[in-house]
């Protein structure tokens, strides 16, 4: 048994740490001097490797000479993974494999322990393992992460023969005789990693290394190249004709760009940092002195450049995998037997479409033939052969921009499809064919909107919207029925392609998009009515969402104006589908059941008007039916309309509520509210809380008499804010007589699952105390010290805005507050409204991703609509000032009551 070697001296550790810092400083100097990412990563890796070799040698020198010889003849140290590639970011892990023969297990174990401790003490983070050849091969066959790291294995110390023996054994037993298995293991492991990091190339806070299109995709291409052809070298794959020179050039440029970004992130964080957050994006745009344009901020231009690289990496990697994936022998035989020709040119294999070799050049040099290829692939629901797509991509750069009638007809045939349209258009976009048809699509390529509301770039959002609309085909709802009954699906899908094309120009994107739509319609030779329809859809693509989520759609005037603007059932159906697809494509989970119901309600009400029913008549009929149902719940006798009833109290209470409340609430809920208000003492407040398992929210229903109506709303909000609750939605109603009926759906962040009854009872009491004035906001905040301010937003984000609408409602002034969702925002805004002497008679509170759109229907001190322009301007300025101060001071402002 060997004796433990004496520990390294403090002086040695200081030397080691100094060398680590020098390696990082060297990299930072290269970064400042404008060196490439590859140069910096190589320089850091070389310096760190030299230090590791010094640590190894220092530890070895402390051992007896015989033991030194024994170790050097029976063990080796290999750099694997990123270290094996010779590329390191400043704070990357060092990947090492300590390899040994079994006869020196004790001596080697002690030696490795000393080396590892010294590395850690030097400030290096090791990713290491200690194995024999047998162990290494066995591990590589079952663990894809280790297997792929071994592709980069490179001996840096010890017995060269032992290292070579391992590399040969690894290649023979892990790769050579199981190429297809190894290929699939590499791909599957990477696809799983992609899913864990967002699953989409165009997500707006990517992981430089692991997100789709990141450095790991370049690694994957090299790994599957090694699995298939025995080399991971891009230039060797190019020389063997496995990948084009253009793709290799693109990959190398992207690798250099991504490496440099990653290196900058490490230096900025002072640690390993691969997540490209919005804050670091802003910092990097400033560091790189990116100059903005009229339509795009510096950070948007920076990220557009980033996504151009990452998207290219993802596309090339996916194409390479499809083109070179090994097929089982039986599968190849089956494909051969099942292959047939649809004519003398096209060849249909079970899972893809190809062109007979002698006609390939002819097809790829003609836009009509290319579109016929895409049309056929879409019709059969199959993909196009990867190498054929490569040829189309190359030729698309040289094709003329003029469109023939046949080209237009083929494109419209593709757009009219209800299945596989999304994937087809994506491939047309990736190959450059879609840019020929619609030149403005080039502008949308990797176009970023730097805000808190979108999850994807404009082009990714657009294709997701197309794919979302296709899912409506089988939807058993008004939305599905609308989609199925649309006659001109080509115009619908063209409008989805163009709905956000106006972004990035510095003006209202709907108006710019409408102008682009008009130009596109002329380019495609659309008839005048088709052109007008396309322009309308693009121009008005936000209108339905605006009305459904931010306005009282029970108001006949709002409905009538909207129906007049739409004009026909077909236009309404198309606008409805476009709106739903647009919202769905914003991000996962955005198109909630609640939003779906609101949108469907607006659609159905408007469709009735377009069918000839007058809005006011329709509303009166619905109110009459609601009234009869409410009477039934209260066991009151039914009386014919327009006849007096003995129970005038009921009629007075019912008529005192707004049509919005009566039409959106269930008749059972209205009956319960009326019964409570009828018997409610002047000084009593009723609060009913109920947990709703399907949404994991608590609904707090509050009923208060007229004496508490002033400031009631913001006092209730103060309770939820102080208790760290997230208000998902709220419906605020004040009757003509001053009675208050408010409902809040909240997420209680103190509980992961069901909220206990004891908690709900406590909150009910807190609300009663707040509304009655027994407690105030300051006291509640001080009693809840666990309250924490949410992270501040960067100054690059808008601090919020206020819009005042004095046209939509005859009775009220409407205030729209659009801001970033931060804890306490609603309380601050509602308090400011109260302090200006305004009464909230109805409110629509909702959160859209990180964006809040709070809508308040307000009256002045005399219960009248605000007509004075100076007063309106004052309200707007005070609320915007409140938003600005809140962003600067946050939680401190809660204390000022």
Could you explain the architecture of this structure?
The chain is of the alpha+beta class. Among the domains are: about 10-175, Beta Polymerase, domain 2; about 195-295 and about 310-320, Nucleotidyltransferases  domain 2 (Four Helix Bundle (Hemerythrin (Met), subunit A)), CATH 1.20.120.330; about 680-790 and about 795-895, no CATH class. Helix content is about 55%, strand content about 10%. The protein contains 40 helices and 16 strands. It has an eight-stranded antiparallel beta sheet with strand order 9-10-12-11-15-16-14-13, sandwiched between helices. A hairpin with a 4-residue loop joins β9 (about 685-690) and β10 (about 695-705). α13 (about 280-285) packs across α14 and α28 (about 545-550) packs across α31 (about 595-610). It is globular. The chain starts with 9 loop residues before the first helix and ends in an 8-residue tail after the last helix. The relative contact order is 0.04. Residues about 330-340 and about 785-795 have low confidence and may be disordered.
Summarize it.
This protein is α+β, with helices and mostly antiparallel strands.
Shape summary: globular
Strand order of the largest sheet: 9-10-12-11-15-16-14-13
- What share of residues are in beta strands? 5-15%
Helix-residue proportion: 55-70%
Count of distinct strands = 16
Question: Are there runs of 5+ residues with pLDDT below 50, and where?
Answer: 329-341, 785-797
Number of helices: 40
- Overall pLDDT level: 86
Distance between the termini: 76 Å
Most strands sheet: 8 strands, antiparallel
Q: Provide the structure class.
A: alpha+beta
Radius of gyration computed on alpha carbons = 34 Å
